[in-house]
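Below is how a single chain appears once it has passed through the pipeline. First comes the sequence as given, then the structure the pipeline wrote out for it. We keep one example in the README because the format questions we get most often are answered faster by looking than by reading.
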Amino acid sequence: NYPFQLLLEPLIGAISAGNCVVLKPSPFAPATAEVIKKIVAAVFEPGHVAVFDGEGDVVEQLLKERFDYIFFTGGPRFGQMLWKWRRNI
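Resulting structure:
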């Protein structure tokens, strides 16, 4: 399942490097999001990995927070929007 792999592969590297992680699953894969939430709740402390559901409004709220690194999917249009949003904060 590609949405599953898109979340877990970067999570492994980030956790291995000692980082806390915020995951925002795709709203187009709700079953995958539920599986990810169950795995994260069973394996990680709440302060180490958090999962947020939702659409654009959730992304906007998350981007108001300070992150050292953002890994995203969504194509060039979303990347340009993300870049402009982050520069204006």
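Strands lie at 21-23, 49-51.

See the next section for the split statistics.
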